[in-house]
Amino acid sequence: MKVLLTGAAGSIGQVVTLGLIDRGHEIVGLDRLPAPDGFEGAWHTADCADPDAVLDAFAAQPLDAVVHLAGHPDEAGLTDSLTSHVVTTAALLDAMLAHQVDRIVYASSNHAVGRTPRRDLVSDDALPRPDTFYGVGKVAAEALLHLYADRYGIDAVACRIGSFLPEPTTVRNLSTWLSHDDGVRMVEAALTATAPGFAVLYGISANTRAWWDLAPGRALGYEPQDDAEHWADRIAGRPEDDAEAAHVGGPFALEQFYRPALDRR
Ligand SMILES: NC(=O)c1ccc[n+]([C@@H]2O[C@H](COP(=O)([O-])OP(=O)(O)OC[C@H]3O[C@@H](n4cnc5c(N)ncnc54)[C@H](O)[C@@H]3O)[C@@H](O)[C@H]2O)c1
């Protein structure tokens, strides 16, 4: 497939770009940053929140699908969060309609349900329960994807990613880890699943201590191969581990992240 991959200069973007190219896909990169050294395909240096710049990128070549990873991967004020996650997604969806591209894979986050108390496995039918304005942005971006799927028949898979890391480094990561290889498997499954409509999957590896249900991902063909448990003996406990295990969003659900919604002068 020929895929427009936004956020291609970022930490997930660089890994997924290489992984999808290895699997025979063609990547057109888009980021506010220039292409990383060694990237050889087409590249658009553009702000995904600018609908004209996004349309220009679509007009430059035909595309089969979009993988939307561009976004600020952390907590911010509400306005910045909505721009980073919702406005960028809107610009892409409108450009997809204009250019008859009907598949988008979105980097949502576990923080869309992060305030859910940690008890039972959380599945794709959990109510939105964000833990931060970042999480609110992800919930709203998912809502927009759902609207375009219902209105226009776009296939949109929201991947609620846990912790994308080379290896787990904290006790929480033993539940939330997404390995690099599984991240590529996840995106490829979401790109190629037959007629998913709007769907949510949890982007974690096959962790023995998983907090989220892998069944929705498996139904779309995502078969994770790695398990954070392999590192369990090497991970030292920390005083904050219990607090981080109270809600599935971990530290983002803690009081240290409370802040006003809007930045003031
Ligand atoms: N890393 C994780 O564990 C994790 C977990 C859950 C969700 N996510 C989501 O995955 C996505 C990628 O995360 P990451 O860890 O690779 O972050 P990152 O900061 O390493 O990469 C993001 C990239 O997007 C680009 N970008 C940001 N806003 C942009 C815009 N408006 N227009 C164009 N480019 C823009 C940045 O320049 C950067 O290269 C984010 O949406 C993040 O919220 C990440």
Give the names of the bound compounds.
Answer: nicotinamide-adenine-dinucleotide
| Main sheet characteristics | 7 strands, parallel
| Uncertain ranges | none
First-to-last CA distance: 46 Å
CATH superfamily: NAD(P)-binding Rossmann-like Domain
Secondary-structure-based class equals alpha/beta
Count structural domains. 1
Overall number of strands: 9
Predict the CATH topology.
Answer: Rossmann fold
* SSE ordering: EHEEHEHEHEEHEHEHH
What is the approximate shape? Answer: globular
Q: How many helices?
A: 8
Question: Kindly state the mean pLDDT as a whole number?
Answer: 98
How large a portion of the residues is in β-strands, by DSSP E?
Answer: 15-25%
Rg over C-alpha atoms, rounded to the nearest angstrom: 18 Å
Q: Helix content range of the residues, please?
A: 25-40%
Proper CATH architecture: 3-Layer(aba) Sandwich
CATH class: Alpha Beta
Strand order of the largest sheet: 3-2-1-4-5-6-9
If you had to describe this structure to a student in words, what would you say it looks like?
With 265 residues, the protein is an alpha/beta fold. The chain has a single domain, classed as NAD(P)-binding Rossmann-like Domain (Rossmann fold, 3-Layer(aba) Sandwich). It is built from eight helices and nine strands. The chain has helices spanning 11-22, 51-59, 78-98, 133-152, 173-176, 180-192, 215-219, 241-244; strands at 2-6, 26-31, 43-45, 65-68, 103-109, 155-161, 163-164, 177-178, 198-203. It has a seven-stranded parallel β-sheet with strand order 3-2-1-4-5-6-9, sandwiched between helices. The chain has a two-stranded parallel ribbon with strand order 7-8. Helix 5 (173-176) links the parallel strand 7 and strand 8 (177-178). Helix 2 (51-59) packs parallel to helix 3. It is globular, with a radius of gyration of 18 Å. The protein starts with a strand and ends in a 21-residue tail after the last helix. The mean pLDDT is 98. The structure holds nicotinamide-adenine-dinucleotide. The site of nicotinamide-adenine-dinucleotide (NAD) has 25 residues, from helix 1, helix 3, strand 5 and strand 7.
